[in-house]
Amino acid sequence: MTNSRRDIFKFAGGAVAGALFTPAPWRLITDTALWSENWPGIPRPARGEIRAKFTNCALCPAGCAVRARCVGEQPVSLAGVHGGLCPFGLTGHHLPYHPARLKQGPIEEAKAAVRKRAPDGIAILDLNPGRTVSWTYRRAMASLQGLYLAPESQPVAYDLSAAKTVLSIGAPLLDGWGTPANVNAARQNFRLIQAEAVESRTAVLADEWIPLAPGTERAFAQEILGALQGERTSVVARELTADGSSFVLGDAPEIPEINRLLGAYGKIIVAPSEAPVPEPWKKSAAAITRLADVPDHSIGVLLIDESNAASYIPWHFIEPKLTGDNPLVVTFAATRGGYARHAQYALPIAVYPELTDDIAPAVDSIHPTFRISVPLVAPVVTPPAGLANPADFVGALAGVPASNALRERADAIHKSAEGAIVTYADGKETPVKDLTADAFWKSLNQGARWDRPPGLSSLVPAASRSTLRPAEPIESSADLPLIAIREPHNPALVSPLMTKLYQESGLRLAPNRVALNPDDARAAHVPNGARAVLQTRIGRCSVEVTVDPAVPPGAVQVGGSPGIQDVCGPAARVKVVPA
Amino acid sequence: MTLRGTIVFSIGVLAALGAGWAGFPRVIYQTHRQPVDFSHQIHADKAGSKCDDCHAFRADGTFAGVPTLDKCSGCHAAAMGSTVAEKNFIERFVTPQREPEWLVYARQPENVYFSHITHVKRANLKCERCHGNQGTSNTLPPFQQDRISGYSRDIWGHAGRPAMTMDACVACHRQSHLEHSCLDCHK
Ligand code: SF4
Q1: Ligand 1 pocket residue status of A57, Cβ below 6 Å
Q2: What whole-number distance in Å separates Cα of residue A228 and Cα of residue A127?
Q3: Which of A256, A544, A558, B32 is deepest in the core (most CB within 10 A)?
Q4: For the ranges A292-306, A333-347, B160-174, which has the lowest average pLDDT?
Q5: For residue B1, which residues of chain A lie inside 8 Å, CB to CB?
Q6: What is the pLDDT of residues A396-419, one digit of tens each?
């Protein structure tokens, strides 16, 4: 019997039909999917023992306690210990691998350039003041006769638990303003009135939302102030005075005076008390200076520490302070998106959770606290590219030793023998006086937190003070028809996963986007998703457009990217034109 | 189709069935032996051990998984019985302080988050619900590793058999009305 070609096809057909009734094809399909998990380029944590490590999130001054689930040495998920983490903190372990991360910079060359120019009008701008490294900077500046600049010269702290009514004029009180766990715990006890032009996330959760016309926040604050001074009547002002325990939050320059009239200073708004600091540091530290108080054209060398910056000061406030004659700007940054655009040297720094740094007290922390953000991973950027250590860099310029500063601070706290340390692994609270200095230091390096009870804190009434920056004059202009409403400040690096989620869900405006009312978008000829140019009196900036009926007509909601902030302050008049 | 054609087609079907059911598993799975000839049954019966005596939760709530040598050598620093398996274990691992490289049947992909403590303490699930009768077996089954995916064959169960597949997890969560979102497990 001879086999024909037709027989071979029949046999093959039978084999294919038969194979469908075996596990082979189905197993191979599943295996192929699983195999694709192992492609090169897909991050795969090393296999290893599953353990929990504790640290404190350094992305903002809330400094939430973090429990990291680690496989081997690699954190694979982060969770809060008391009260959860915000979405930025939840994805913090992605940040060292961020594609936009600054990975190299001429550290030695920058050092030589600064040495050549210093101390010729040297200053350091610390955008995350209140840390131990801030004391290193202050000591270095005192030694170099330079200036230590911070967004606020006399910061204040808010005791939300003492408030019965809070009027927030555009402040993101429930959206990253303080420590999420504190704010949520205090929230049940105060009535929140949110006055702003858009129904923000805070407005949605407030007891009352007062929709303001875009750009009238300051006028609203003036109205409240007038009512408190007895010049006019206002329902909101009456409500604020009725319960005797209220305060106002916001950027308007009238707000400190309103709070003074409400009697909030010393009761709700207090001087933040700091964890103990070694005495010699205090004696040799430069004063804290506000950028606004620096004479124009006086800074020849400006060093900027952007690590986990709590705020961004637009470049148009900084530039006039620099000498006209070739000023030198060196920034320590995690990305190229911030001041690196204006600096001669942008030096890469460690990012959370690979950096070791203590966390400045949060705006709603009224008693001294000390916690260290303990590294969960070894630095991802390693020599020869290398990372700059801003404390060592600045300390070396002035001969101020910086490498042991955290330990010295911990020893000073231990010496005070006050307060207690909370260790998260076992949830225990141990009085400091029961620990040796080494045991105290060891606990801090395991993510523990030191607190001094509120009873011992010094609730010094703070004087009425002006805001961070002088309020920008309200412009009136027909050629710039829209008024900007700014989104809250975001961390410089955000996990790509977060970016994807909030851009797809529309929950948060991406930093480089602007949102327009459909009528304004139509008038400006910019469709949803189009690239456009945001134009202000100060400059222009490239943006992407979101058309959103929730934005009131005549306003444009702008993302918080440094590029946008550089050209556009809150309530600035703007125009959006097609790119 | 002619009779001859039908026969040829049927031979093809039979050949594929044979290869698929008998030959394919031999090719796709590589069989490894566990480093120690371990009997859960002896530990449960003679030593009265319970699952969580060795597979314990740490103080912080994390699951310690397969015990490390420290735990074993707590009892087996010297031989407790006269079995060859115990003698081998002491000679090969306890005396040289060498950690046995256990092959974990239940290993899950990296993108899966699973909390033992939530399932055991909060949902009161018995270990057997997912791990089958492993705890009463006299020998450890051979570890059959899929050559392509790298996972153990044992976790790929089907209905009625202990399984730790995503389908099994979803089915159980659905049954208990606890199916919330993908992020429950894929964090
Ligand atoms: S609120 Fe701040 S500290 Fe807390 S998790 Fe979010 S970014 Fe981190």
Answers
A1: yes
A2: 34
A3: A558
A4: B160-174
A5: 10
A6: 999 999 989 999 999 999 999 999
What's the pLDDT score for residue A1? 61
pLDDT digits (tens, 9 = 90+) for A496-531: 888 777 767 777 888 889 999 999 999 999 999 999
Q: How far is the CA of A128 from the centre of ligand 1 (A)?
A: 14
Contact at CB, B8 and A17, closer than 8 angstroms = no
CATH of range A107-153+274-367+377-405; options 2.60.40, 3.40.1350, 3.40.50, 2.60.120: 3.40.50
Atom 8, ligand 1: residue with shortest CA distance: A89
User: For residue B28, which residues of chain A lie inside 8 Å, CB to CB?
Assistant: 24, 27, 31
Nearest-CA residue of chain B relative to A69? Answer: B62
For chains A and B, what is the number of CB pairs under 8 angstroms?
A: 109
- Per-residue pLDDT, B109: 79
* Pairing relationship of beta strands A540-547 and B29-32 according to DSSP bridges: unpaired
Residue among A471, A474, A480 nearest A536 (CA): A480
Sheet holding A357-358, edge to edge: A357-358, A369-373, A449-451, A420-423, A428-431
Name the band, by pLDDT with cuts 50, 70 and 90, for residue A302. Answer: very high
ipTM tops the 0.85 cut: no
Who contacts A480 (Cβ-Cβ below 8 Å, separation ≥6)? Answer: A535, A536, A537, A573, A574, A575
**Max Cα distance, chain A (Å):** 115
Averaged confidence pLDDT in chain A: 88
Ligand 1 atom with least separation from CA of A179: 1
pLDDT number for residue A147 = 96
Token pair, residue A101, equals 């991360």
Count of other CB atoms within 10 angstroms of residue A383: 7
Q: For residue A169, list its beta bridge partners.
A: A195, A250
Is the pLDDT reported for residue A457 higher than 70? no
Contact A555, A485 (CB under 8 A): yes
Q: Which chain B residues are Cβ-neighbours of A24 within 8 angstroms? A: 19-20, 24, 28
CATH code assigned to A157-270: 3.40.228.10
Number of the ligand 1 atom closest to the C-alpha atom of A180: 1
CB contact under 8 A, B110 and A76: yes
- Amino acid at the residue A408: E
Where does A482-578 sit in CATH, by number?
2.40.40.20
**Distances, alpha carbon A278 to alpha carbons A143, A223, A281, B26, in Å:** 17, 46, 6, 70
Q: How confident is the model at residue B155 (pLDDT cuts 50, 70, 90)?
A: low
The alpha carbon of residue B92 is apart from the nearest alpha carbon of chain A, in Å, by 22
* CATH class held by domain A50-97: mainly beta
Tell me the CA–centroid distance for residue A56 and ligand 1, in Å: 9
Domain with CATH 2.20.25 in chain A: 50-97
Contact status, residue A369 vs residue A130, Cβ threshold 8 Å = no
A98 against B179, higher pLDDT: A98
Each domain of chain B, given as residue ranges in start order, spans 1-32, 103-187
Q: Is the CB of A64 under 6 A from ligand 1?
A: yes
